[in-house]
Amino acid sequence: MNWRKSKIGIFAMVLVVILVGSMMRTPITTIPLILGNLAQSLRVAQGSLGILTTLPLVMFMVFSNFASQILKRMGFKRSLLLALAILVLGSALRMVVTMPTMIGGTILIGVAIAYLNVFMPSFVAAYFPQRIGLYTTLYTFSMMMGSAVFNLITAPIVKLTGWWTMLLILTVVPLLALLTWGLIVPHLPEEMDGRVPTPTDNKAPTKTVIWQNKRAWYFLLVFGCQSVMMYTFTAWMPSLMAYHHVGSGVIGAIMACFSLIGLPVSVFLPQTLTRVSRQTQVGLILSAGIVGLGAAGMLFVQNTAATWFWLIEALLIGYSVNLFFVFVMTMFAMKTASPYQTAQLSGMSQAGGYLIAALGPVLYGMAFSANPVGSAQNVVYLAIVLVATVAGLAVVKMDQI
Description:
InterPro entries: MFS (IPR011701), MFS_Cyanate_Porter (IPR052524), MFS_dom (IPR020846), MFS_trans_sf (IPR036259). The chain crosses the membrane at residues 12-35, 47-67, 79-97, 103-126, 138-157, 163-185, 216-237, 249-270, 282-301, 307-333, 354-373, 379-396. The protein has 401 residues and is mainly alpha-helical. 78% of the residues lie in helices and 0% in strands. It has 17 helices and no strands. The protein is globular and about 60 Å long. The model is unreliable at 192-205 (pLDDT under 50).
């Protein structure tokens, strides 16, 4: 069966993209919402469960750079099958609520998502080379919609059926993705050209060469800067708002708005980037930089509990961070010559980027403990936005890495 000529085949591919996209953040972002319940069930201090949000970032940092090697050795179809199987296993392990299984399951989930983060740009480049913008839109939209939806449904589901139901849902969704991919795999070619490029291919440099490629480092900087802003904001902005006596209900709504602002960006940006001139791409990057600097500037005058202030702050940061994220995820495929090279560039950028991201919440936490409204962390935020903007402009100007 030629899947491109089959409505069922196309539907299955789209379903895989949506299901995988929806699970690339939610297994991590949903856990903090039930952390109190978990701590009570495990009979441990809630603070001791912070490791469940830190471990995935460590796994991203460690395993992202190996994803392209997995892809080369196993081929794309089996690689994605492996990543989804690991994700299902890790999610199922967390349903057995003990400290060892929660930690072990979270480690497996982190490894799986590290691979999926790298595989998905390659998936788009391999199977939809003429529709990179459309399918990048589809999975980035699914990522952000998944986070927003789970943020909104977790509290009512926990109230109605209990917190364990969320762990069940977080297992069922990747299981559906695994089953769907398993059914369609026999009908798919390995790659569009029938092979995975080898390291000797002049269009697919080796792992060592990709780290020595100066142009590739601009991608790493963009990805790293947006990651540190994203994870620092999600980790500490609720605490900062609480310090200013913003109500807990308002904080939850503002954080949901932070997730939702990324949806229009993920819908329109990928296809826009594939169609517009470089001058327009420059304008988009500058808009992210200017908005990010505006958000950083507001933090210097943050001494207020006003809802409008923190809502605007969240929306500005959300727009800036999500534009940088969707931009770099789209450029992974646009600025490389083959799906394998896309995986190498994505793996390198995410390995280095998540190293930066892992440091962000820790360092901000130290600054917050010393002075919650201090200027030092705000100055660093300004610098990060500037670096992301300059690196983004460099990415726009290059033809390919």
